[in-house]
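Section: Multi-chain targets

For targets with more than one molecule, the full set of components is provided together so that the structure can be written out for the assembly as a whole rather than chain by chain. Components appear in the order listed by the source. The example entry contains three components.
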Amino acid sequence: MEPLLKSTHVVEMFGGLKAVSDFNIYINPGELIGLIGPNGAGKTTAFNLFTGVYQPTSGTIEFDGQNIAGLKPYEITQRGIARTFQNIRLFSELSVLDNVKIAFHSHVKYSVAEAVFRVGRYFDEEALVTAESHRLLSIFKLDDKAEETAKNLPYGAQRRLEIARALAAKPKLLLLDEPAAGMNPQETHELMEMIRWIRDQFSLTILLIEHDMSLVMGICERIYVLEYGEIIAHGTPEQIQNNPEVIRAYLGGEA
Amino acid sequence: MNSVQKNDLRLLVFGVVLFAVIGGAMEGGFIGSFWKLNIILIGINVILSASLNLINGYTGQFSLGHAGFMAVGAYVGVILTTNFHLPLIAGMVGGGLAAAVLGFLIGLPTLRLNGDYLAIATLGLGEIIRIVIMNIQYVGGAAGFSGIPHLTTFPWVFATMLLTLFAIKNFVNSSHGRACIAIRENEIAAAAMGINTTKYKVLAFTIGAAFAGVAGALFAHCFYIISPGSFTFMQSFNYLIMVVLGGLGSLTGSIAGAFVVTALSAALADWPEFRMIIYALALILLMFYRPQGLFGYVELTKLAPFSRLRGLKGGREE
Amino acid sequence: MDFGSLLVQQLINGVSLGSIYALIALGYTMVYGIIKLINFAHGDIYMVGAYVGFFAITVLGWGIFPALIVSMAVTGLLGMVVERLAYKPLRHAPRISVLITAIGVSFFLEYATMYFVTPTPRTFPDVFSSTGITVGGFVVNGQQLLIFAITLILMVILTYIVQKTKIGKAMRAVSFDTETAQLMGIDADRVISITFGIGSALAAAGGVLVGVYYNSIDPLMGIMPGLKAFVAAVLGGIGVIPGAMAGGLILGVVESLVSGFLSSTFRDAAAFAILILVLLFRPAGIFGTNTQEKV
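Its structure, encoded as tokens over all components, is:
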């Protein structure tokens, strides 16, 4: 099977510092993959490379058979990679509904002129976007808060809204950056169910960064472990749990 | 006809009634020539503040160069009507197009900057436009362009103002407008949602510049002479005051801001220092106590009484 | 005059003008370095400095040096008062709100001054002999010598304060990382206030010197030099003190060359063109370093 995402020898230098070196991963369509590692290992940098926020210093990133290294973030999103952010980045002054509607942007098919004169496809498309946004919000149990200002939502709801918003961009690959951060065990458990469910429902491929090991080990089919910008281990949750390199990286000292 | 169209129609009817009342009062001799000019200036300033609001308020790109685009529209407009004897509408369209082209050319490189750097760069570009005009002898240089026919009338201004407001209202309530607002809220997240941020920043800037150009053409045809001195960055500050006072991201605010500032300037015309001190204190106090302006992010048409009329449950227009 | 001597003469004029830009630019750069605010009112502080000097000389009958010192003291205090009243309450507000406030403060200073002293320009008394010296056939007049000397002295003092004194260290610490500096026991509010004071005093010196140089002052005189000094600060690398000095001098020289060899009407355009080119191609300025938002 052709992998959906494949990075080959990706290197990212910040000044003289190697943030990520010789980064090779592949993700097959439909997989649910975890990316773990100690703080500062370069996990978010890897996300930023996949989504075009950073340009790799060298190496290639193939998505859906095409090299996407060097493309701008919006171009990558339009090709089918959507993400959430570790430090939540909602459109915080806007309503919950508008947050989701905005993410439909690249799928809305009317021109500026049609919008200004309110002719042609404007009304039909707007009705469609509104309906689909409500549908997504109801999946994430946010429908009753559609008119609320995003910044007034509780923390867990903000994280859910970020996922709903990312799905509105209709991605093939969803990148979740610490989706369970700041959630209590109950919320984390619900989130796990949710992630599995949306993967099946939207036929998605998911790559997630997470510190909550119960979540990662519970739902990921394969896991990559990153330390000092390098992949030190790769395998099923069981293999990772018993890998001496990983234990050393997390617990320190000699393995 | 759906509720959105009904609401548009209602606004249109309201506009026409307002036009009839003010126009009637002007024709009927109830308003002196000083206030007649100022009513026209209010209309022009509404166009300017609404278009600046599209850039500063909705898209969040802090521009201080609006007077420069207004100047381009004014000069291109008067060249077309005075030197080529074309009608006012040609001057307005020509002025608007010229300003749009310039806005596009300026916006493309400068909108990479953000916040205060963009503010100061656009201020500088506005001044450069003015200094260049000052050095073109064909348009009278520093002395100004004279012999302009007095073509701007209240109906022209009112119709253009209404058109501008509807166009900007419809734009910001579309997917394209939401893209602009998303950029204001969080540029990185906007890009991550598939929005070409550069394109929409430049688009908003170009549309804003176009309307400023149209307003400039209307402004120029109120007077016999215009000079580069009418388009300094102090003018840009003036429009900024209107937008900030009324509320960033609110068209109702832009209308109110243009009205208050223009009327206050006219009323205090004999005490210019006093007027500026009031503006200064108003700006500072506003930032302390109500930084979102009088109507920050809110439209009058979306408040309770209007919503009841529309039969909608408050909130945003769908 | 042939080309060569015109060039040298314009360079001398340029350095004089540039020294004044540098004095104003220092205040911009120090304030920006510490609270990331383009203090739009800084040019008006410079104008107030010129007026204080003017009244000290004409009304009180003082000499240029006492007038200069009093002007720096009074205006420095004004800078601190402005910071306390207008900017401190907005310490955690969005930067654009503070920028708009600064525009408000600028208007306020301009027109409140105009209310008290009338808009009519005042003739600054000729307090320093215009005779001056001749070096290799080129005239450096007395006012220019005064500008060079005062600017040099003030820059040496400023460098000493910033590099060697306790408050200077605190200023650098707050500008590097305000929160950490506060954790280390530095009173950031006091440091910010003193920064405004020093920056305003330097601008006041620039104002008095400009009065001596051009013999004329008015309430709106600060607008253009204020913007130019900002350009100088950006050119040198905003937040970098030696950058402001260098940026001021470069801008002064460029402007003098443009007025001397092209047309004085393009002087202002040249300054803004420099600004835009720097912002587009080297936004960190000559001496600055680039930073990127963390995602």
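The interface with chain A takes residues 295 of chain C (CB under 8 Å).
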